[in-house]
Amino acid sequence: MAHNAFITRETIDGADDGPLSGRTVAVKDNISTEGVRTTCGSAMLESYVPPYDATVVERLKQAGATIVGKTNMDEFGMGGTTETSAYGPVENPADSGHVPGGSSGGSAAAVAAGEADLALGSDTGGSVRNPAAFCGVVGIKPTYGLVSRYGLVAYANSLEQIGPIAQTVEDAAALLDVISGPDPNDGTTRFDLAGDDGGAADDRSAADGGSATHPATDANYAAAADGDVNGTTVGVVTDLLEGADDRVVDRFEATLDDLRSQGVDTVEVSLDSVEHAVQAYYVIAMSEASSNLARFDGVRYGVSGGDEGNWNESFARAREDGFGEEVKRRILLGTYALSAGYHDKYYQKAQDARAWVKRDFDDAFERADVLATPTMPVLPPALGESLSDPLQLYLMDANTVPVNLANLPAISVPAGEADGLPVGLQFVGPKFGEEAIVRAASAVEG
Ligand code: GLN
Fold it and tell me: Where is the catalytic site (predicted)?
């Protein structure tokens, strides 16, 4: 099909009535769908059919949505261009010679091309916001703990959230209204705990004397898309403008000018820690990935390694055949970073940097209601251009990964085009500040 946005096209009908009835949704292929193949963009899971629905899929069905298929993605979410998929690359509907971004490139392309009204992606280090920016659509990465990860095939658990993609801020927010909320199957969404083991919920539960409800319960994200930003203070993260493509910075500045004309105050904010964010992110993400992906051994999950030789040899064959190059690279590096003797040098340092990034954001939100950066420092690369240089690809994530390290919410909203290619602006909010970023983004839409 056009753009190669889908790995599997299959219609899954929802309830007759609900807030999403009559709307079509494309679902990233690392989100489990009962009875419908879920490959994670990997040959390893070419014929894997989950026996249950992810919580978000259950909620889509209850809301009356029609799921139209499973979307193409970088293998296990590892990439930023959707070129590491075992099912071939996706073309950017805005310009077919260019990548759609990734790893949720199929989801963003499906929405941009009108093949689905809405889509779900997952964002471990930018994978919803990056393809939203490159395809000229809206993408939201929720606060950690806002949306259940039950049924999401894990890449790096401590960093990732499922998030909505849509043509408009209001539509993306309405989809967030449907998928967010507590889930007994995912302990990190629990807010009814007495404060000591509630994961992301800790401080909120404690502040409420342990009786707090989940932040999504009383929220109406779609209603926050009212464009009313008069009196809002936007912090411009200067560190993340340095090194960005001039054409991207021009669009970013023009959009800020427009916001100022709507009554926004801007202040410059510097986050000293962010220069270490990409390194810290990749150490943590690869470490978690090396552990998560151990289950793909041809016995528990994945293609069979055959019964020749001993168990170890069969296991190795399954992983040699089933995984692509980028996934193997990350498992090797992650295993190395966690191994005895190196743990303190890499993993512990990365955790320290992560704590520093969190503190920097806390300080910044003392001075601003939301923060703004270009979503991506570059325009969408041409297809095939970036695959040979993984380091260059990792650096492309400079503006998105700090948000995951700090477990914060962020949105990417279209901010015009440069050379015919879409540019995205990112707003970052304080913890559970989804309404503030939705409001700010809706003002950019004008
Ligand atoms: N590009 C980043 C990575 O490869 C982010 C991926 C993601 O968010 N799933 O890890």
Answer: 28, 103, 127
Q: Is 279 exposed, middle or buried (0-12, 13-18, 19+ CB in 10 A)?
A: middle
How many whole angstroms from 192 Cα to the centroid of ligand 1? 31
Residue 393 alpha carbon to ligand 1 centre in Å: 10
Angle at 45 between CA 41 and CA 50, to 5 degrees: 105
Q: What's the confidence (pLDDT) of residue 212?
A: 66
Q: What is the pLDDT of residues 372-412, one digit of tens each?
A: 999 999 999 999 998 888 888 999 999 999 999 999 999 99
pLDDT of residue 203: 47
Active site residue 104: no
Question: pLDDT below 50 — which residues of the chain?
Answer: 193-210
The per-residue pLDDT for range 90-105, each reduced to its tens digit, is: 999 999 999 999 999 9
Tell me the C-alpha to C-alpha distance, in Å, between residue 70 and each of 77, 151, 271, 291.
14, 14, 38, 25
Verify whether residue 28 is a known catalytic residue: yes
Q: From the CB of 126, is ligand 1 less than 6 Å away?
A: yes
For the chain, domains (ranges, CATH) are 2-180+219-227+410-445 (3.90.1300.10)
- Is 211 among the residues known to form the active site? no
- How far is ligand 1, taken at its centre, from the CA of residue 130, in Å? 9
Catalytic residue among 32, 103, 148, 442: 103
Decide whether any atom of ligand 1 lies within 6 Å of the 285 Cβ. Answer: yes
- Specify the pLDDT at position 207: 46
